[in-house]
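User: I'm putting together a teaching handout on how multi-component assemblies are represented. Below are the sequence lines for each component of a complex, exactly as they appear in our records. Could you produce the 3D structure of the whole assembly as structure tokens, so the students can see both representations side by side? Please keep the chain order the same as the input.
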Amino acid sequence: MTDKTILEVQNFDVDYGYGDAAVRAVSDVSFTLGASKVLGVAGESGSGKSTLVYGLTRLLREPGVIVGGEVKFHLDGEGEFDILSASEEEIRKIRWSHISIVLQSALSALNPLRRIGREFDEVLRVHDANLSKEQRRERSEELLALVGLRPDRLRRFPHELSGGQRQRIMIAMALALRPELVIMDEPTTALDVVTQREIVSELAELRRQLGFAMIFITHDLSLLVELADDIMVMYAGQIVERAPAKELHDAPRHPYTLGLMNSFPPLHGERTELEGIPGSPPDLKALPTGCPFSPRCAFAMDKCRQERPPLVLEVGTEHSVACWLHDSSYQGAVPVELSKRLAKNSGGAQ
Amino acid sequence: MKHLQLPKSLKVRVGLAGLGIFILLTIIGPWIAPYDPNYTGFAQNASPSWNHLLGTTIQGQDVLSQLLIGCRSTMVVSFIAGFLATIISIVIGVASGYVGGKADEGLSVLSNVFLAIPGLPLLIVLNSYLPAGQQTNPLVIGSVIALTGWAWGARVLRAQTLSLRDRDFVEAARIIGEKRVRIMFGEIGPNLLPILTSSLLFTILYAVGVYTTLAFLGLTNVSTWNWGTMLYWAQSNNAGLAGEWWWVGPPGIMIALIGTSLALINFGIDEFINPRLRAGGVSAKIRRASGAPRRPRLGLTPVLHKSTEAGSR
Amino acid sequence: MKLLLRRLGLYLITAWVAITANFLLPRLMPGNPIEQLIAKLQGRVTPQMIRAIKLQFGQGLNQPLIVQYGHYMSGLFHGQLGESITLAQPVSQVLGGEIWWTIGLIGTAAVLSFLIGTTLGVIFGWRRGSRLDAVIPGATFLQSLPYYFLGTLLIMFFAAKMHWFPIEGAYDTGTQTQGWNWGYILSVLRYSQLPIISIVLSSLAGWMLGMRNMMVTTISEDFVLMAVAKGLPRRKVMWHAARNAVLPSVANLALTIGFLVSGSLLVEQVFNYPGVGNLLVNAVGNEDYPLLQGIFLLVTFTVLGANFLADALYYLLDPRTRVSGQAQ
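Assistant: Of course. Below is the structure of the complete assembly, with chains in the same order as your input.
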């Protein structure tokens, strides 16, 4: 694989509402995604992770508004694609053929009145007028086989399938046009743990085969550790930590990341005691001054309540964190949980 | 419970204002009517003038006076019918949804039967069998209308009660051991309020429609004035063909206006019940002021570069 | 299928209720309306007619109610609805002659109004937030106008004043004779235009507003966003939403048909158009109870039949109602 970049995001801002009523939902987010890489985005509901990706693809609904930043896709055969200045028709053309998306609830994402086959057929026909009806059907069956479903599922309506089957169909559909980037918005949240596990490993396998890049959104960090190359943790619309998956898992630096890790059992391995994070997700309309996480943070200091910490790359690593505890100006001792490498879950328990 | 504040929606405000005006007319209509509506001594078929703001009928009666006096009878019967029908629909709908089981099935069939029978023909049949004197009694005719108009409300209330029945707070009341009746009216009742109001308004709307229709057909006493009897006289004297718009127009427009007011209030209630109908609170004015396109387009999130214009190009 | 059978059962019960009400009302109503009617009719109609009325309403027969009910039901099964007092003809014969006018007029108007109203609702819902929103108050007002009133207004302006349409009747009685000839057919079409326009205009706004609301609700569903994400052209996205949004409208058809038919019957009266509505108004005016009863049953059965068609349509449109035997 090359080191080609597929997506470049700079200082991306999203508001809900206009003028005085506007609330900043995504604030100053920058990152790049390499071709065939998997970027995990983690955070609680309301952290802005979904808003971010819907904003990037301009699928965000009213009253969402993009108020700043740049988003550039580097797509095969399209060159650099500036999605924020593109016309509706230009965006329509890259949708699904280059960037596809899988939603949390496959049941609501499928048109309840249509057979599965018709949905496949439509998306294939719209993007490639040259395919014959027969070719489209073959391709649809091929795609179902990719996710381990029998071709007769094409004759079914969504309500006739199980949750796992529906989500597999959504994944197969997302791959229909061999896109370079697939966005997964909590694709496994609505499923039971066993199905969740199967689908995640199928996804990992599909990616190895087909080489698409993925942005995978979840509130379940442990799931990302197995799937993602890099993980970005968001809180109140901002990136609070970003690192290669294993690095983040073994040595979380932000107290929020640590809290998230303790909220979910690892996908494989022993159940450990879950702690969760005290307090509730932030109210974007009334964010505290300073670090937005400070009211819930066990290690909050005076400075945290006064000044917002910038996202800083640790010297000599690929690990960035926005926390005063890890700032060079901080003189005290970093709490032991946030300074050591966590051994307990790494590599799976034997 | 939420406090009632002045509703934000313009539609609701206009609707409430309209309804207020009609209620006011109901009360003061007979006092402000300039003439006796039965007096036939004016110039016949006169178009509107300063003496007769809405002209006169073929019999030389003052149209405005008839219109103002007719408001009371129309509104009183419609409100009686609306309230009676709502009471029936509460009893049947809420009981049916709350009790469940066989009783629910029976009551549901009953509502569905009444829903399927066309109301107006039934009403006409019922009304024509009424003893002559009773057809003018507002209470009797209101009850008859209520009898044909309760089923829709009962169905909606039943569905809402069903969905409320299993919510936590009702469950909690049940565990504490509160009496069924108390749960029904104390816990479920307040939560039915929006739907109940909407159903009441709809029923009043229905009652205005059928009562004036009955009167238009000459099925109520044609010598008591309401907007339907005015149209009855206009129709039987071919006022439409003669182009007497001042006689034909006002009563029908009044019926439509009261209907519009009630419907506008209902729009507001709909938006309250179903938040998706609200325009996200963003008016076209605000969007334009911010430089966004006037209308949201699905799949084309607007981009407003206000902070970092240009940047590095 | 089970769902359809259930609905059919409901309509059968409803039909039975209507029939029974028809039987009981004149017999149990306070003030004995039939006796009063007979008193009024003495000397004005033939003795045979009086006897027929007495027989039909069980006056002076000294039969227990249940026996009368048995006679009534068996008569009904043989299509006997009694004799019309004013027309001196069997009610079934009178109705058989007039019903086709009504079905033609109201049926055409109802279908047109549903199609046009729903289409407009789809467009207005899809373009929510645009200038098109300005028609909502107007549509609400239009919806509140009584059918017969709008009919009167249309006659006043477009027939009496502008002479664009004939004023009343179903065809030009002066020049045409009934039968399968072009002149007659064209005349019927011409005379039906304004009544149909009245009914369509009065009922259109209801469909439109309902459909607009459903469209707005449906657009916020995930599968519509998915259709956009899939890069479908806007027209196709709209179709995804519209196809789903129309379901509640179809489900409501059953409810609305009764209103629509009731309202339209009066339009016949305004246009002096032959048909059941016109008969109804005359029957009421003349206290022609047998005819009135016959009309009530006929209208009720027609509405129930239309309801069932609407249910069947819903069944065809929504695959979720067909779940059961297959799948899994």
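A couple of points students might notice: Chain C touches chain B through 71 residues (CB under 8 Å). Chain C has two domains: 2-77, 97-318.
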